[in-house]
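Example record for the data management plan.
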Amino acid sequence: MKFLDDLRNLDRNNIGGWPRSVKVFFIVLLFAVVVFLGWYLKISDQQDELSSLATKEEQLKQEFSQKQAKAVNLEALQQQLDEMQDMLRQLLRQLPSKTEMPELLVDISQTALSAGLEPEVFQPGPETPKEFYAEKPIQLKMVGTYHQFGTFISGVASLPRVVILTLHDVSLTPKDKGSGQLVLQGTVKTYRYLEDDESAAAKEANRPGAHGGQAGGGK
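Corresponding structural encoding:
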């Protein structure tokens, strides 16, 4: 072919004398190389960035849809939260009040005596206010039989006010081998509800960054 013959017979020292077809070929080839390099160095990076932005756009759309769904139901969720908080306050109101705590402690002690237990130690400690309630620890050591302890627990459960006792580091061990008596020793905690002003003070005291100690309760 003439074009191939022209390529073979090119004079590198006389580019101006090259046949027109050869000049056009090299111009087109040079243009193609420039376009390829431009795409490789610039456009390919932009395509990668575009792909990354498209992925991010999809994620943002999903987040927007989720937040929009929550925003639509925000009022209903807030109403449910308010109702749950009201129910919690009503339940807490069934716990003893501050003025009832001394009498409650006496009732618990008397219940232990009525069950036949020997309360060697029954020492209430200072209470710790939480957000909605206060807990009061009682150090105790009681001696009695298995059935007497069962009677004691049943008696506490039947007190007029709702009484919650939780056990902490409590041990139950035999007193004497063959005597049938057990020794209950450790700490139990009972709880009362906080009045509105006490609850506000407790929230402020428990707020992150708040300073100062918590107020101690009465016996």
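Summary line stored alongside the record: Confidence is low (pLDDT under 50) at residues 212-219.
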